[in-house]
């Protein structure tokens, strides 16, 4: 199954943004891409080979951002009980999927929830 180009371009922007955050590393547990900081996942990036729909899963503790993400077409609380902790899965292939810029904002929020204070200070230019 071919991945829609616009969804792939969004995914690539989000992927590059996530890995550009201070201390971020990419790992492949369960065969999918995740970005971690301080050995903790801050965004699940899934797979980009077309075997599963493209999407990202982020932890949003801000009520407004969380509600906004859940309102996206096809979005929902993350599986495996992660939804209870504020994790939201957002598909990228659905018509009306969020723009890359908004997705990057959510990735940054998720990073700020997970990252140690010293790396957040580095992100903020401190």
TrEMBL record:
Keywords: DNA-binding. GO terms for molecular function: DNA binding. Gene3D superfamilies: 3.90.1150.30. The keyword Cell cycle does not apply. InterPro entries: YjbR-like_sf (IPR038056), YjbR/MT2646/Rv2570-like (IPR058532). This is MmcQ/YjbR family DNA-binding protein. It comes from Streptomyces dubilierae.
